[in-house]
Amino acid sequence: MRRVTFDLDVLRSFVTGVEMGSFARAADRLGKSTSAMSGQLRKLEEQLGMPVLRKSGRGLIPTAAGESLLAYARRLLELNDEAAAAVRGVELAGSIRLGMQEDFGEHILTDVLGRFTRAHPQLRIEARVARHAQLMDLFTAGKLDLALAWDIGTAQAHARSTQVIDPLPMRWIGPGDGDPLALAGSGEPLPLVMMDAPCAMRSAATAALDRAGIAWRVAFTSASLGGVWAAVAAGLGVTVRTALGVPAHLRLLDDAALPALPAVGLSLHCAALEPAPVTERLHDIVLHTLAQYAGLSAKDDPPLLSNGTPHDATLFPGPGIGRQST
Length: 326
Prior knowledge:
By secondary structure, the chain is α/β, with parallel strands linked by helices. It has nine helices and 13 strands. The longest helix has 24 residues, at 64-87. 34% of the residues are buried. It is globular, with a radius of gyration of 22 Å.
């Protein structure tokens, strides 16, 4: 069997394109032309002897082989970047301050901290997990360098913001077993487990129920998301969040007769328009980690022609991961 030695630069193009949701945007970020990006993808497929991308509508998404390669490519690139930092003897002093919504504190924050610490063991991270209002107050007061927060129209005037993923649909969430609507009993209002007001998801839930003509009552409130999860698990009612970060012992109620809910965006705010390299590195690690948890694919990228040119003239079409604004 022929031994395949991957080109890490080619793998970086492949991974960045998938994670950004656009190979055109990935080409711009990596400082490559679209034709160079197309050539690298062809080289990768020639090495493997099979396609790693396939068309889906106007976009490109990984094939089964591409999905398998993606996981290994991320590990190879992560190890490469760690090795480069170690060999260069980078010893950064000081700290970097990161804030996240409570939804991401258990799993995503753990992965981010692990990846970053391995690459920069001498740098201290100060992490804050809080609700949206507190998180944005800390960010506005200059107490956070990066903040991962729900996008509810609170863009910062003097900061760089990256819409890290497409808006996520809010979801009804209930205990792991049983009929959640049976919690209300015959003719009784639907019991809700919610964060203390003000809360955008609480408002969205009650508004949706009102429009559907479904009676409801707030059965339990909590200042922390952990309290909400515990109350739902105990069968006190249903709640509303996104699918990211839902504990394994709870259940998404997609099959329940409950009204549709709106979507909510997620943004990564960076305090500096031109951040220090170490802040940029943490920024990228957060984006990559979220991409893995969200299971994203490059679904709206214009397919490249054989010469690397997109079928239409728009280089940055459609939704995806990593759109920036200021």
